[in-house]
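Protein fold
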Amino acid sequence: MLKWAEQNPYLTDEIKLNWLSEREGSCSIVPVSGESFISEYLDGTCVKRYDFIFQIIFNLSENADGLNAENMFALRMWQDWIEQMERESNYPDFGPDCWDYKLENLANMPAVAQVYDNYTAKYQFGARLIYCEN
């Protein structure tokens, strides 16, 4: 998943798994726990989902200077990248037993998840990968 995510041209730092510092530009992928099976067939084939969250730290402004809107726009570009990867059929490689991928954003806009005392904020959005597996 990380190798695939490194293709994102809008990354502001090396992307990490399950780790995000409070430093501006830090970015992470966080898998979401939950039921992974959508359906299972008699031949053993399963349709599964893999939900994950892209997170990034940006400086935050308490003024009407446009910085907060720029942050939302920057992360919206990440969401556009997800949509582009779906159009191009460019998916994470889950191995030879997985096929028929579909990638989608889980929201139409990123969200502010947390604000820190040092005038930074965690922005994030969820995405989903649906695939078949033997």
Summary: DSSP finds two helices and seven strands in the chain. Residues 2-133 form a domain with the STM4215-like fold (CATH 3.30.2000.30). The beta strands are 15-17, 27-31, 37-40, 46-59, 98-105, 111-115, 120-133.
